[in-house]
Amino acid sequence: MRRNLTFTSISVCLVLNAVIAVSNISWAQEKVAPTPADLRPTSTFQSITDEKQRSVALFEEAGKVIQHPRCVNCHPATDRPLQNISMHPHQPPVTRGDGGMGVPGMMCTTCHGSENVPVIGQSETIKSIPGNPNWHLAPIEMAWEGKNLGAICAQIKDRQRNGGKSIDEIVEHMAHDSLVGWAWRPGEGREPAPGTQEAFGELIEAWARTGAACPL
Known about the structure:
Number of strands: 6
Largest sheet: 2 strands, antiparallel
Order of helices and strands: HHHEEEEEEHHHH
Helix content: 25-40%
Strand content: 5-15%
């Protein structure tokens, strides 16, 4: 039964893609970098003696992930998610809906299951369909699209705009949440976020320990 549901979901998504192609709207797979970018380890920032400056530098390094399309695509400034490295509006057209899960008839789970699903021999442009058990858009209060890193930093620290999380809870979320971790395991045909979730989590933890200072 599960296999049949998975194949049905893939078929629905591929049919939607074909309709889009007819309309001259491309859902083409992104060009993947040959090797993912890296993140500098926290030890390389120890030479910065001013703690606030070190904290800012750590967050700027973590910003390579935070501002990467893998993350910003799910933190859009509108009710429509973004797609691919080009960060174009999601195709087929979907909208946020309750809890960021889409609207009836076009829920996120229509195409996105609990894990990435390879697409083999059915489409020249789609290599896999992303998936995670908690797949959804970030709340609009957490929109990052179009903001500079300083504004995103202030937003991350603001409990009115970060889901009521403390700094410690932010560190835990960034370092261990599996949906955040999807950014480094996005499925075939997609460029992963820089570094690893472990390295990213260490940067965020070190940033928090040094006062959680934000870039200007």
